[in-house]
Automatic annotation (TrEMBL):
<dbReference type="GO" id="GO:0070513">
    <property type="term" value="F:death domain binding"/>
</dbReference>
<feature type="domain" description="CARD">
    <location>
        <begin position="9"/>
        <end position="92"/>
    </location>
</feature>
<dbReference type="Pfam" id="PF00619">
    <property type="entry name" value="CARD"/>
</dbReference>
<dbReference type="GO" id="GO:0042981">
    <property type="term" value="P:regulation of apoptotic process"/>
</dbReference>
<dbReference type="GO" id="GO:0002020">
    <property type="term" value="F:protease binding"/>
</dbReference>
<dbReference type="InterPro" id="IPR011029">
    <property type="entry name" value="DEATH-like_dom_sf"/>
</dbReference>
<dbReference type="InterPro" id="IPR001315">
    <property type="entry name" value="CARD"/>
</dbReference>
<dbReference type="InterPro" id="IPR037939">
    <property type="entry name" value="CRADD"/>
</dbReference>
<protein>
    <recommendedName>
        <fullName>CARD domain-containing protein</fullName>
    </recommendedName>
</protein>
Length: 99
């Protein structure tokens, strides 16, 4: 999982599971406290009423962020959705073995 594009590819591979299972109402406030998103990004993420659409928008923005933001996202998952962090780690390892 090297660099920005590697993170984006990894997030794309686990996207369906994250969209299905991520509780945006638990995760997003924690990410906001970490200062990950701009006010404009926050408004775009919170705009849709549907939680799955919010999660998709959140993931779109995460794919554009750097490695440090991805690390903050993983720390947040560790706190409130460790099973999803496990999915990301396993997918990361599987991706490495396929290259």
């Amino acid at each position: 999982m090297a660099g920005h594009s590697g993170i984006a590819r990894l997030l794309e591979r686990v996207r369906p599971k994250l969209v299905q299972e991520l509780d945006i109402n638990k995760v997003f406030p924690r990410l906001l406290r970490r200062g990950i998103f701009t006010v404009s990004e926050e408004k775009q993420i919170l705009g849709p009423a549907d939680p799955k659409t919010r999660t998709e928008t959140l993931l779109d923005f995460l794919c554009q962020k750097d490695r440090n933001v991805f690390a903050d996202f993983c720390k947040t998952l560790e706190e409130c959705a460790p099973q999803l962090l496990t999915c990301i780690v396993l997918e990361s390892q599987q991706g490495k073995s396929n290259t």
